[in-house]
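step: validate -> pass
step: tokenize input -> pass
step: predict -> running
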Amino acid sequence: MSYEKLEMLYEGKAKQVYSTADPNLIIIYYKDDATAFNAVKRGTIEDKGSLNNEITALIYEYLMAQGIETHFVKKLNDREQLCKKVSIVPLEVVTRNILAGSTARILGVEEGTQPPNIIYELCYKKDALGDPLINEHHAVALGAATYDEIKYIFSVTEKINTLLKDLFIKEDIILVDFKIEFGKDSTGKIILADEITPDTCRLWDKHTLKKLDKDRFRRDLGDVREAYVEILQRLKKTN
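step: predict -> pass
step: emit ->
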């Protein structure tokens, strides 16, 4: 069955979302646009849309095979994928296995420090506020989620972290940290949504600690496209 894009429902920094003839299905189009520091820095990464589309498809297929429920249905073409329509929970869930970026600066530790624990954070999805860091009590006060929903989201995130670390380390990639989002499907069930790509993860080569993610764009390190290509090529070996 073929699916046609109808009305554009939403356009974000990296993707466009379109309705289809099926009210429970959408088409997500991946763009080449790149942003950093809450869109203060903007640019374009050649082929980023097609690379991230394929990377997300591979990762979501892997997670689904391991029992994680997601909005992903199938990859349609180079830049588009068919997904279940969800109502996004306005929370970003960040998992930090290693301290890097702004977190390392805020805590006054050297980037690459391995904490004794895994850090799980919530950010309120609100561009006008800069997606601020909040705790579960703030999230409940804002009506973003209930305590039970947050507990469930954290439990699924913990499973995803374990699965992703296992997936990446097989190809000598360290999963430093990552951001994920969840949504409610037509039945009200909370499932993994959005994307998992070098845009949303910090990924370092195990041996050289070379950055293979959007930090190459953020920090003007060069070879941004090449890093995304490398991640895709390594994932293809595993799959």
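step: describe -> The helical segments are 48-65, 101-107, 136-141, 147-169, 215-218, 224-238.
step: cleanup -> pass
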